[in-house]
Design goal:
Elements lengths: L5 E6 L4 H10 L1 H4 L3 E4 L1 H11 L3 E3 L7 H11 L4 E5 L9 H13 L4 E2 L2 H8 L21
Parallel strand pairs: 1-2, 1-4, 2-3, 4-5
Helix pairs in contact: 1-3, 4-5
Bound molecules: 1,3-dihydroxyacetonephosphate.
Length: 141
C-alpha cells in the first residue's frame, strides 16, 4: 500500500487540455493520491475526470502563491505544472516565485508531459521513497 502523496496540478490556459489528457491517462494512479491545483485547472480536471481536486484561487488571483506557501509548509510532495512557454502571463512574477520555491524545497516538478510521465512512474510515488526534508541553517531562517 503506497502512502498518499499531495500532488499539485497546474496548467496555463493553452496547456490545460494537455494536462487534462495526462490526468486521464494516469487517472488510476492519481486517484490513489490527494490532488490539488489552482482554481480553474482544479475545476476543469474534476469536471473532465471525476477526480476530487482541491481548488485554490485561480493563478492570476493568487493561486500560485497559495500553492507556494503550501510547499513551504511541507504540504505538497510534488508538482505537475504545465506552464506556457509561448505566452506571457499577467502574474509571471508569481509563476517564477512558485517555481523558485519548488526548487528551494526540493519538490519534484514536471513542466511537460514527458517529465510528468517520469514522475508518475518513478519510485518517488511509492511509500519506500522518502524525500529528504530540506532544513535551512539558522542564518537562513
Ligand atoms: O495561472 C495559472 C498558473 O500560473 C493557473 O491558474 P488557473 O488554474 O486558475 O487557470
Amino acid at each position: 500500500m503506497n502512502i498518499r502523496k499531495n500532488i499539485a496540478l497546474i496548467a496555463h490556459d493553452n496547456k490545460k487540455e494537455d494536462l487534462i489528457n495526462w490526468v486521464k491517462e494516469n487517472k488510476d494512479k492519481l486517484s490513489e493520491h490527494f490532488l490539488c491545483g489552482t482554481g480553474t485547472t482544479a475545476k476543469r480536471i474534476s469536471e473532465s475526470t471525476g477526480l476530487e481536486v482541491r481548488g485554490f484561487r485561480s493563478g492570476p488571483l493568487g493561486g500560485d502563491q497559495q500553492i507556494g506557501s503550501r510547499i513551504v509548509e511541507g504540504d505538497i510532495d510534488m508538482m505537475i505544472f504545465f506552464w506556457d512557454p509561448l505566452e506571457a502571463q499577467p502574474h509571471d512574477p508569481d509563476v517564477k516565485a512558485l517555481l523558485r520555491i519548488a526548487v528551494l524545497y526540493d519538490i519534484p516538478v514536471a513542466n511537460n508531459k514527458s517529465s510528468a510521465d517520469y514522475i508518475i512512474s518513478s519510485p518517488i510515488m511509492s511509500s519506500k521513497y522518502e524525500r529528504e526534508i530540506v532544513n535551512f541553517s539558522k542564518s537562513q531562517k
